[in-house]
Amino acid sequence: MEIKRLGENKIRCALTEEEIKDMGFEIDEIIGNGDTTQQFMRLVLSLVEEQEDINIENISPMVKAELLSDHSMAITFGGDSDLSFKDLMNTINQLMGQMTPEKMEEFKNLSREEKQDMVDAFLEKRQKEEKKEAKKEKPKQPMTCALVFSSFDKVVKMCHACFQERIPESSLYKLEGEYFLVMDFSNFAKEEMRTFAFAAVEYDDGRFSNEGQIAYIVEHGQSIVRKEAIQTLMAL
Question: What is the pTM assigned to this prediction?
Fold first, then answer.
């Protein structure tokens, strides 16, 4: 069996008809029987995993089998997406499981070329669905937080110590004797937020990220600085 890496998360295995028979399988059985397909794929995967330079965990869950003119078989594991490989066998089960017993029986009675065309179309549809799902824009997670301070001076010191050029949208509220600096980090990278968080803990007396709690502060707190609170405090 010839194994070739086609990319970071894509590999191709080429097997001759003799090699497939030596493994205890017939090509028609592999294509026409779901259980046999799974057994064959498991064996191929175990052989691939023996290659020290190939890490199956990095291969995306896409499979394509091709019957070549010389009756050899080429199997491509993975695709061009960056989807992590979690459980290839589950993917194969889903693909083959979509066929009803009647469809499976019809499939077995097709010619080799018809079977291959059907398998290719079946797997291509699955790959398109995977790619379409991967391209969907995921809803942005709220990046708003509120820091609690026991005094106004602490808020001012934190603003001077933790901010320079990159400043989030901010507003300052007072509620039940405490000051709440509400900030929106939507345009910040995670690494920038992490650095700020480590620095801010030296000055604040608590923090909130729950949307409901922040909404309560905004609704019931006394507005001290409604916009650009950090810039205003840094000017003091």
Answer: 0.43
